[in-house]
Amino acid sequence: MYCFIHAGLHKTGSSSLQELFFQNAKALQQEGILYPTQSAQHRQHVILAKALQTRSQDNSSVVRAFEAEIATKTHDALLLSAEWISTTLRKPEGSRLVEYVRALGYHPIVFVYLRHQPQMINSQYLQGVRTFNFSGSLSDLIALKRDTYPENKTFLPQIDRFGDDIVFRPFNEELRRNGVERDFLAELDRRLNRKGRLTAFANRSQGRRENVSTEGPILVEVLRGLRRRVEDALSRRERMLLARKIVAMCTRRVGPEATYCGLDTALARAIEKRHRAGNDAIARAAWNMSWEDAFGADIGQSYQCNDLHVTRDRAGLLAALAMIERLVTLTPGWIEMARQRQMPEIDPAIAFA
Known about the structure:
55% of the residues lie in helices and 7% in strands. The chain is of the alpha/beta class. It has two domains: 2-116 and 153-204, Rossmann fold (3-Layer(aba) Sandwich), CATH 3.40.50; 217-259 and 312-351, no CATH class.
């Protein structure tokens, strides 16, 4: 019996997949695939995966819920998903989770989606800004992670260990266009011989594309500027709620913008050069081809940075500053409401009057 383990990476459509799995868990079970929901947090299995990987007793209740669910629910295959798994797979002890699943009697198959670094870094940066976790520039983020940013070649030991039981997929332009949901479900469909029925579940996707950012340069400047001005002692939930509210309000206030890009072509080339050797090593091992062959049009792209400070867009900077100054007066009340689990809707026309 298979256990399919979706391990990310971050910014490769994982949230879209997890939303699809969670919302359609009952329908998937009718096709024989169990996506455990009782042991899921935020629609994924990160707490469960950490508990199984570390053997920690801190989350033993999650493990018990998981073991009870797989024991009582009929299934032909098990499906787990957590981006965190891709992080631990890079480490020497990264196989513990897989070994645990195997000890339960499953045949584990691990899926990892790899993405070209320039696009991934820009997307990760926007995620950090939009979730109120980072207020610096893209260059600041790159400098901060220069010595710790993981190389894809760190997956090589797991290829040696798991062989065909670890599957790498290129999150390239073609795959993004067709949708990661369709790609992943087609892999399961083929292995379980479901004759296209699983692939059809991709049509149920709500269209969330967490890997595709819609924030423009003015909104990015507002989020960065406001993050520097509000108190630091915000919980993850408070940051999430506050950022979500600001994004919704400012998007309606600003109107359509070109998607933010913090990269220019020279920076993208430098990132590509830094990762070229490691990328080719994993591509040869996983696909028997070069990274360039696997990612095609993603390689060597030209980028036009539209950060307001780079383009010296005075009108955009002034518009962002005006919104920041107004939002600074509103956010303390919103934070208090979030702590009281209340976050009312406010008309942007009134807020920015």
